[in-house]
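Before a colleague's protein record goes any further, I have to sign it off. Thanks in advance; the entry in question is below:
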Amino acid sequence: MAKNYDSDFSFGAVAESDKRGLLSMFVIMLGFTFFSASMWTGGTLGIGLTGAEFILAVLLGNLILGIFTGALAHIGAKTGLSTHLLAKYSFGEKGSYLGSFLLALTQVGWFGVGVAMFAIPVNKVTGIDMKLLVAVSGILMTFTAYFGIKAVTILSAIAVPSIAVLGGTSVVSAINHAGGLKEVMNIAPINSITVMTGVGMCIGSFISGGSLTADFARFSKNSRVGVISTLVAFFLGNSLMFIFGAVGGKVFGTADISEVMFSQGIIIPAIIVLGFNIWTTNDNALYSSGLGFSSITKLPKSKMVMLNGVLGTAFALPIYNNFVGWLNLLNTLLPGIGAIIICDYFFVKKGEYDKIENMEFLGVNVTAISAWVIGIAAAKFIPGIAPINSVIFTMGAYYVGTKVMETKRRSEAC
C-alpha cells in the first residue's frame, strides 16, 4: 500500500514496518509523561505534605498509574490499535463514540491548559498581550501536531533532556536556598492534605492521559517494548516532574512552578525549556484528540487536529483558571474507559482480539455503558480514592454483567 495513506493509522492497526524499538518508544513515552502540569500538582503536594508523605504518595500513585497504563500499553502493542478503536470491542461501534468524545474533549482541555501555562509567565516577563501570546503559541503548537507521531518524537527528543536539566537545576537551587535536603524535608506543610488525597491527586493528574496510553504504545515493536517504555516513563518521568514541582513549592511556598523559577532568577531559560515541554505535551494531546474525533466522524485525523487546536486555544484561559475542578472531573469520568478495555481484553476475551477488519461490532454494548456509569457513581459517592474506586467498580460491574449476559444468551439458545 502506498505510504500516502493514513500514516497515523486512525482507522486500523499500525503496520509492522512502522513499529519502533525501545529507544524510540522510550523517548515518546517520556515526552508523554514529562508534563508541566504535573509540576504544578507536585507543587501542591509539596506544600500540602511532609517530605516523607510526599515520597509515599508519589510512589503509591505512580505504582497504580504504572499498572493501569502498563496494561493498556500491552494491549496497544499487541493489537496495534488506538484507544478509540480498542473501545469498539467492548463498548460497540456507536457506544465507543461517547468514550472517544470525552477522552478527546479532555485532551483538548489539557491543550488549553498547556497554552495558558506557557503564555502566563511570558506575559509576566515581557508584558506582551496575553491573548496574543495564547493565540500565537496555540497556532504554532497546532501546526506541529498536524504532522503526527513523527513530530511528537522529534519534539520529545528535544524537550525531555531540556526539562530534566532545568528541573534538576531548580531543585538544586531550592535545596541550597533552604540550607540542605534535610531542611527541605523538614519544612512543615502550608495547606495540609492527607496522603490518600495526595495519591488521588497524583493519579488524577494523569489518569486522562494514561487512559490514552495505547495511542502511543501501539507503535511499539512488541509488548515488551511497550510495557517497559511505559513503566519506566511513568516511574521516572512522572516522578521527576512531581519532584521538580514539590521541592521548589516547599521552599518558596507556591505550587506555581513559573513563580518558583522567577524567584530563582531562571525565568528566561524556564520559559524556553518549559515552552518546549508544554509544546511536546500539547502535541500529544492534539494527536490523541484527533484520533478520538476521527473515530467518531471518520474524517482525517489531521483535520480534527486543526479544529481541536483552535478550540483549545480559544478556551485556554477559562480552562486554566478552573484547573482543580478539571482534575476532579477527570477523576470521576475517565478511568472507567480504560478499565473496561483492560477487563474486556484480559478477563473476558482472554488476551485475544480478532483483527479489526474482520470484526462486526455491536452498535452499543449496554453492559459496558452500565458498568461505566457504576464506576462513575463509585468515584463520586464511595469514600476513598476516586479514580481507584472507578477502576475497581467498573471492572467488577463489566465482568459480572458480561458473564450474566453470556449465561442469558446460552439459556435462550437452549
Notes: The two ends are 46 Å apart (CA to CA). DSSP finds 20 helices and no strands in the chain. The CA atoms of residues 74 and 224 lie 8 Å apart.
